[in-house]
Amino acid sequence: MSISISKDCKILLYADDSTILYSHKNPEVISEKLGKELESCSKWLIDNKLSLHLGKTETILFGSKRKLSKIRNFDVTCNNHTISSQNCVKYLGLNIDNSLSGENFLNNIIQKINSRLKFLYRQAKCLSEQSRKTLVTALIQCHFDYACSAWYAGVSKKYKDKLQVLQNKCVRFIKNTGYRSKVDHNVLNSIGYVNIENRVKQLRLNHVHNIYYHHCPNYMYSNFTKVRHLHHHFTRNSEYNFWVPPVKSQQKDTFYFNGIQDWNMLPIKVKKIKKIKEFKISVKEHLTKSYSAASSDSFLYY
């Protein structure tokens, strides 16, 4: 038996992190609806000899900064207990702010990477280049990669530049060069790295490959429609392409839209590769070759 909620709500369950999502233009309607759904969940839990910890329950109202500035109070009441609204919540390791700007999350990433890099620099004299690369990959690269397919496209250029600067610092540590030394495609290629933008694109394409060849959960297919399922009038390379949906401005930052765009731009010989291990190698080689001739102005050397 599962928790029953209204059809116009969505519930996300992962281990001990659970979320109820509801969308409406009126915040008062959202507050009332969430209160009823929480009471329904609380009753179900009690009937099954469980309980809802309202002290750890948080609410957050998403919207543009302009609209949020007009809202003074947004409180949800459940079983006569008031759950106050937060400007930022932590879900599955991500600090999500109410305007979805990603600033809180990225500031946290930047702080963690800088602190770990300082620690590694204190041990640098005892480490070989291979050891330094292994430590950076294990302790720092994971912060660059975590859920980047979802959040990277939506962050501002200022934060994208900061992430590239951080990667350059890591590369200089691995290569044991000066803090003002140049970091370009040749230096990145020498240690098997690609810049931040292409690293995100590489991981995003790996996800899309699993979607295309049906190696992922069913819910991932909802926004991905193959061209051949719509019609049989193929254009160049369209046999292996996804249909590009019409989107509004904010939807251009979503994973599915950027994933479709990146996938459709791949050479057909790469898209034909079914084995994920071979695909990962081919995609990295393609991205390295495609951008090795790019202007050096696209890199930040400081």
UniProtKB/TrEMBL annotation:
Tell me the protein's name.
Answer: Reverse transcriptase domain-containing protein
Natural source organism: Mytilus edulis (Blue mussel)
Question: What is the organism lineage in this UniProt record?
Answer: Eukaryota, Metazoa, Spiralia, Lophotrochozoa, Mollusca
